[in-house]
Amino acid sequence: MVKIRIKMKGIMVLVLVCIICTYLVSAANIGLSPATFDYREVLRGGYSEKTAIISTDSDKPITVEATPRGAIKDWLDFSQNFTVSKGKPYSLRVAVTPPADMPNGEYDGFLRLMTSAFGEGVEGHAVGVIRSSLDLAITVEVTDVEIVDCSAYGFKVQSAEEGDDIVFSFDISNSGNIRLKPRIIIDIWDQDQISIVKTEEFSNKEILPTLKDEFVVRVKSNDLEIGQYWADVSVIDCYSSQTLTFDVLEEGALKADGVLTSILTRKTAEVDETVPIKVGFKNTGEKEVEAYFKGQITFGEKIIQILETDRFTVLVSESEEFNLFFTPKQVGKYVISGRVFYSSKRTFESSTVLNVVTKKFQLSYLVTPLIYIVLIVLILFLFYKIRKEKKLYINKLKHLKT
Known about the structure:
Blueprint lengths: L1 H23 E3 L2 E4 L2 E8 L4 E9 L5 E9 L5 E2 L3 E4 L5 E7 L8 E11 L2 E3 L5 E5 L2 E11 L6 E8 L2 E2 L4 E9 L9 E6 L6 E7 L9 E8 L7 E9 L4 E10 L8 E7 L3 E3 L4 E9 L5 E11 L2 E7 L3 E3 L4 E8 L5 E11 L2 E2 L3 E8 L6 H38 L1
Parallel strand pairs: 1-11, 3-12, 14-20, 22-30
Antiparallel strand pairs: 2-4, 4-8, 5-7, 5-9, 6-8, 9-12, 10-11, 13-15, 15-18, 16-17, 16-19, 19-20, 21-23, 23-27, 24-25, 24-26, 24-28, 28-29, 28-30
């Protein structure tokens, strides 16, 4: 009977521990696409880049840690820690740079992606999660053969007012394995396309292998009369070219217009916490503009801080984001307001509210470790009780035999 009682006690405690753990632990699985990276014809000392999408079935943000393994682990450049949640996948960029003295051949390795043991919930409460992991298999082919391969596309030009720059833009994709500084030639013809009135050459922007980027070049219009012109835009290295047309117009012919799209910050913050402020602006006019944000932060009737950003050139139909920071020093409601100024014009004023609360102790950070400590103590106490009961039982048997 004593044996049975001891076993039942042990089973009951173990069941209790399992029940507690069941309530404390929630599974969080992660997904990976693609599951393998195959870098072909990467130049010694060169560069190549690919992107994988990391997803999860957890509604709460889960921290994922990336660890390189294998012969190529020192070649990889990536984000070591990042956060992912359901509906908010993470784009993991993995770049590889083989050493300049590495012999030709194929090299293997992998990137282990593992969720953290504890996740931070949306409400800020610590929650235990089962650690799950995936391996991103990576193969790198190293070569000493230089490959030049690129393409240019999406050529555009904007008409300009007399004296303003003529802005040409296009995209270049570097499909080779060497760094490129593409040579760009722009020939401007008269309206009848009989004679070239101006030629400009550019080669001042670099693009890495496997990447694509937007190129913007500017041509002065001071020596061009008002009227229509044609332009042959050639990207020599990519064997790409296109003919465009544009106008040089009288000053004031193009409309400058823009919209302050948003002032974004957190709804609440704590005292002495640095809070980011993001201001969005879109150029909705017919010409590029130089824009900047100017505003203020008020606390009651008092101006706490003046806000002003650097000036940025914003192309037609493009958007710009101005970034600022604010560190509140006391509890209360702060109003962030301002306008974007551009081409001697200004947008409507916009504003947002930041509520600042007292800095509080984050008890949630201690809850989970304390629970595990309690569980460990409970298990140790269980073993102690079992040994004690077993010892009493043995002594009773010895006593009965004597």
